[in-house]
Amino acid sequence: MMMILLNSIISMYKIKLILSFFLLFYSCSNNLKVLEKPLNVVWISCEDMGPILGSYGNDVIKTPNLDKLASEGVRYTNAYSTVGVCAPSRFSIITGMYSARLGAHNMRTGDYHNYKTPEQVSYRKNIGVIDKEGKNIPEYEVVPPTYVKPFTEILRTNGYYCANNFKCDYQFNAPFTAWDEVSSTVSYRDAPKDKPFFYVWNTLLTHESRIWERSNQPLTVNPEDIIIPSYFPDIPEVRNDIARKYSNIEAMDKKVGELISQLEEDGLLENTIIMFWSDHGGNLLRQKRAVGNSGLNVPLIIRYPNKMDAGKVDNRIVSLMDLGPTVLSLLNIDPPKYYDGKAIAGRYEDSPRKYAFGTADRFDESTDMQRSVLDGRYVYIKNFMPEQPLIYRNKYRERINMNSKLIQMDSLDMLDGDAKYIFMKTKPLEEFYDLVNDPYEVNNIIDDPKHANRINNFRIALENWQKEINDQGFIAENKLVESFWPNMIQPKTENVEFKIRDDGLYELTSITNGASIGYQIDEKIGTNSWSLYHKPITIGDKQKIVARAIRIGYKASEITSN
Length: 562
What we know:
CATH architecture of the largest domain: 3-Layer(aba) Sandwich
Shape: globular
Oligomer: single chain
Number of strands: 18
Strand order of the largest sheet: 4-3-5-1-6-7-2-8
Distance between the termini: 82 Å
Helix content: 25-40%
CATH topology of the largest domain: Alkaline Phosphatase, subunit A
Structural class: alpha/beta
CATH superfamily of the largest domain: Alkaline Phosphatase, subunit A
């Protein structure tokens, strides 16, 4: 009897052990915490596109490659950019910080959206841009606090080869320490065989400019089949330009398919995390530069090795700021504590967000100030300059045929309904939209008593957030520039100093607080490829080493040698 009881206990223990292991594995798998190093990471970055893919419910646009990616990965429904335009959004992505916290919220501060070497950077004193005080704004770089670095430097420190096929739209010239290589031709295939890689593949096919630049290309979507948002009139110009937009998305999808097929052919697909995202929402009026759902909601798809969590739909609130921390977390690297961004997967997965916050300030030559709070269902907007029209003049976007046509129709009082709504000449102090009943955000229910408590919660959330980040949007841009570059003189990073330790290792230092140091040895000297200094290094007796220092927003130091 005792033996039977003992065997029973042992059997129960084994079952419990197996069950515990299974539950542990399942839990880890469900939270995406079982990924092993070394893994590669590929970012597929498109532009100016909301979640209008087939996998997000659009049955007009044919996106088979991205739909397959979604079926093999996790599709996020409530992903948001921090700003509805490129440069401030990408600032948040590369730094993990709100652009409004660090004074990077105005679009665009300088002509360096593609990488430039320190010798190629120059700044114009007058570009025809004035701020809310009527002061001239020259080209400049944002200077964040000393602890803020591109998260790619953390990856490089941890042994990753980091490459970017040209897009560096960060509100500052990308430091040469951020990437192993930046060029229009660089590929993940350029990574050394002994290093995992982080590769950013950018496509401009969906950018707003491609609506007019590709206007002579054949359409792959019939203008009669497109879906017209309620805030646009049904006229040929609207149908044709939206059909061009849809056709551009289909062209982008084909390129994505080619990249994924290449990864598979190279035997790398199942050792690579793929993240697909857009830098902000749509590229038309009431979309790009807007602070509501249409301007901030973006597609986000993450495919994990071996199709982990394939087909999962995640409804959590996600910010594009979370991309960098998530990459670090998935690679078992603890993200910096100062980040506003949160890891949404991996070893250091953070608690979910309750809200996403959006900002709108100066866009090119036009200045406004709006702030928004979104929770996936509702959108709250506060207009700090209500005297400004909702659709303000912007020379760049008016190159789109339908935009100039709509502006003309508005001037002739030919618009009505929802189209007339978005052309309001002044804005209410507050807006509140229910996306379930009003997906196009044209029925402002701010005064609806049924939502009074909810609206107040959104107000409080915005106030607390603005206080927490010390929202720089209240500061005139000319004063921000002065704080970055006193007397409009760009500070310069101090030169690198070399020290040989007793053990023969070289230490490299710059007295400029917050500076990163890049170095080159022998055959790399004179190239644009800089190794990132993060610990003392060894060089041979006959080898030559050169080094250069850079702090974000500063001029680079001179190149010095041993």
